[in-house]
Amino acid sequence: MTTYDQASWKDEDDDRHEPLLSEKANERVAIEDSPLPDDLTRDSLELPAPAEPALARHYTRLSQMNYGVESGPFPLGSCTMKYNPSFTEDIAARPEAAVHPDRPDRTVQGTLGLCHRLQDYLGRIGGMDAVTLQPPAGAAGEFTGIQIANAYHQHNGDDRSEVLIPDSAHGTNFATAAMAGYSVVELPSGDDGRVDIDALEAAISEETAALMLTNPNTLGLFERDIERIADIVHDAGGLLYYDGANLNALLGQARPGDMGFDVMHYNVHKTFATPHGGGGPGAGPVGVTEALAPFLPDPHVRQRNGEYEYYRPDHSIGKVHGYYGNWPVLVKAFAYITRLGDAGLADASAKAVLNANYLATQIPYEVPFGPFHHEFVASAGEQDAADVAKGMLDHGVHPPTTKWPETVDEALMTEPTEGESLRSLDQLAAAFEAVHDEDDGTLAAAPTRTAASRIDQVRAARSPRLSWQALDSDQ
Amino acid sequence: MSFDVPDDLRYLESHEWLRTESETTRIGITDFAQDELGDVVFVELPAAGDELTAGEAFGVVESIKAVSDIYAPVSGTVTAVNEALFDQPELINEDPFEEGWMLEAELADEGELDELLDADAYRDQIE
Predict the structure, then answer these.
(1) What pLDDT does residue A280 have?
(2) A292 with A131: CB under 8 angstroms?
(3) Which end of chain A is more exposed for a tag (fewer CB within 10 A), N or C?
(4) Mean pLDDT score of chain A, rounded to an integer?
């Protein structure tokens, strides 16, 4: 059993953690010769001016009071918090990867060639005929995918108003459909946690533009009836949309295209080890069947007469992002796929599935469904899932996703990923075990071994402070 | 756990309440609803002059646990909104039937009031 104490750097006088840089050492800098009008400029500006050692210590301390996948297990279900190997960062940081987006196509053949190969790799992984790399995030990919479906129907003179979504789906599915102007029809799950075929048949109609599905679903369960589901949707003239959130279970094992999906997005930050962002740039490529390819966003990369070039597909939905998409992210995904290769990707998925199923057998909580793919959903039972999560922090692991999906009471949605060893899976199981045996009072007070204890979520939401100036004022 | 269900109000199954007084009709969400939602952090309401349609969503209430639509118990026109909620959404938790009111409205059809639950029927529903 691992014991854990997080570093804490707290000022006894004001009970605050590591002070802001601006509170450490400042320097007033004079502003001279500004080209801006006088009424827009200041004579001087106070800026933080710590010496380099103080600066290094500041950021090191902040990182010590944080917890990430480089600290320990991070089984945040549905998020696929796999370790991002650093070689992908090295490759994306190479000078050759820094290309000005206005350069003519013929001078950036290497860049376009990489895009073309990545389109091809992703297409083969998903069983899709064409892939766009343009969307800048998973949710943007979803929106792009549904726009493509919409454009396809419109092009065929087929006006459809509804998108079907299972009740266990990711919230982004509902938001995507609504933003694209569709009415959302929610499908109740069956008793086995999967799509209820009767409910689907009752809901499907000539108004159905698409059914949005992830497979394996959010409970980590494979939709065994996927071929029948695809037939039902296609017979009604609808399209089948694949949410790539859980693709990490399928690499080299099964392909959405082969299951009958018409359009899908890839979450490269989940499946292909690019950074999870935190608001930074991401990428959400979208794959489609041949019938939908003419509707892909502009521009798309193709190879013609031995040269790579950008072009606008015939019935393109238009621009969804500037230039090449979020290029450095795409380089990292490309590097990861290339390094692992076919066998490595298949092995990653196999291990992700093995790890989830092993861990599901090792924890004291009830796990209502199974066997699973890459993740499982346990129930905290009589305990509050949020308290379980806080309690686990005291054992040096990150907790699972809690209270979602709502189809399981007090859900603990757990996804260890392929990166965890047997030893760290056992550490996770021990943390579950310890928290399971804890009394409610102790759990309600947890965590006590972390730098910060419970965050005041209500105050954070009611009076958010979104810049350092806000921290200074209104204490 | 027992919840406050004032006898003089009318209720909707989706946990909104309605109080008719001589000149105005006030609308809000119930004690049970605020307890289910947990700490409310944000409220989105229509503006005075907007139309309400019975059974349709007129606003959104967001807590740290969930985001929920708020449904109009009756049809009519909004005459006032409780602007205090924009700065103090916690009033909905602290005093859902008084300080935490959301809208005042002019009814389009008083007959719609008969469709609503009385306090006993609503009590039965939440027990």
Answers:
(1) 64
(2) no
(3) C
(4) 93
The burial class, CB within 10 Å (0-12 / 13-18 / 19+), for B127 is: exposed
Distance from the Cα of B86 to chain A's closest Cα (Å) equals 10
pLDDT at A7: 95
CA-nearest of A389, A390, A393 to A401 is A389
Residue A304 CA, distance from chain mean position: 34
B40 lies in some domain: yes
Give the model confidence (pLDDT) of B93-119 as tens digits. 999 999 999 999 999 998 999 999 999
Counting as low any pLDDT under 50, the low residues of chain A are: 474-475
Which CATH number is B85's domain given?
2.40.50.100
Q: How confident is the model at residue A16, as a pLDDT?
A: 83
- DSSP three-state, residue A207: coil
- Whether B123 is in a domain gets the answer no
In this structure, is residue B63 part of a structural domain?
Answer: yes
pLDDT of res. A279? 56
Provide the pLDDT for residue A475: 41
**Number of domains chain B is built from:** 1
CA-CA distance, A72 to A25, in Å (whole number)? 34
In contact, A251 and A271? CB cutoff 8 Å:
yes
Residue of chain B whose Cα is closest to the Cα of A460: B41
Tell whether ipTM is more than 0.85. Answer: no
> Number of residue pairs across A and B with CB atoms under 8 Å?
14
Output the pLDDT for position B2.
86
Tokens (6 digits) for B28: 């809000």
CATH number of A347-454: 3.90.1150.10
Amino acid letter, residue A206: E
- Is domain A87-339 in CATH 3.40.640.10, yes or no? yes
Domain coordinates in residue numbering, chain A: 10-67, 87-339, 347-454
Contact at CB, B64 and A462, closer than 8 angstroms: no
Q: Checking DSSP bridges between strand A208-213 and strand A376-379, what pairing results, if any?
A: unpaired
Predicted local distance difference test score (pLDDT) of residue A472: 57
**Mean pLDDT taken over chain B:** 94
Contact residues, chain B, for A458 at CB < 8 Å: 39, 41, 64, 90
List CB contacts of A419: < 8 A, sequence separation 6 or more.
Answer: A69, A82, A83
